[in-house]
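Title: Prediction job returns without error message
Component: structure pipeline
Severity: low
Priority: P3
Assignee: unassigned

Description:
Job completed but the reporter wants confirmation the result is attached to the right record. Sequence as submitted:
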Amino acid sequence: AESMSQVALFRFLAGLGIGGNIPALFSYVAETTSSRVRGKYMTIVASHWMLGSVITAALGWLILPRDVTLPYLNIGGWRLYFVVCILPAILACVLALAFLVESPCYLIRRKKFLEAAGALEKIVAVNGNRHNDSLFLSELLGLLHSKHAGWSGTGDVLGAEGETLVGGMKHSAVLISQLLKAREQRKLVVVLGTVWFCLSACWYGFMIWLPQFFEAQHDNVYLGNLVTSLGDLPGNVINFFIIDKLGRKNALVLS
């Protein structure tokens, strides 16, 4: 980037990916984990965000203040740091494509019942294949197979319009509208959205100010970022043990 407008453009493009992967990731965990361990799995997944911030802060401390140059490619400074930070994103794409099953809900909406049955079998196997889960799965598989046997064609449950970007956005708008019509659901969405907004505003406001504080103290800004990132570790560890014992609401309030 050679100007602030270019920085803003590239940051906007990066935000499209960041803003998309967070809801996709947490909804995926909720859909593919058993309710008895879902809280802990959510905590483990969320803690990797903290782990990533610690590692990138450490890399920034090691690379940015020093004259580190990649041999043969003559890349150093912030360019080298950007290259290093891009590599985990590429690895994430490879791992997701290679090891994750598709969402059964998504496959059912697409009327891909056999693929949904296969995905459900893998999910139950990962979650321990308990007796109740196996009974539920056998009944559900029978339902899916019967639907598949009685259905012909390759159309989508959303219709042809749902295959397009505009059609998908319209369908999402309809779902959101239906969600907000019910009083209790609307209340839950508004409250949780407000809580998340307040927490994000507090956190990012603090993080924006913090580098200025380190500069005013004549401290190493990058080392300060590393220490700040490590500060999230105790909360993640404690939450792992208390979230299923105290409940989601109490854990949220205490955190």
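Comment from assignee: result matches the submitted record. The first helix runs from residue 4 to 32.
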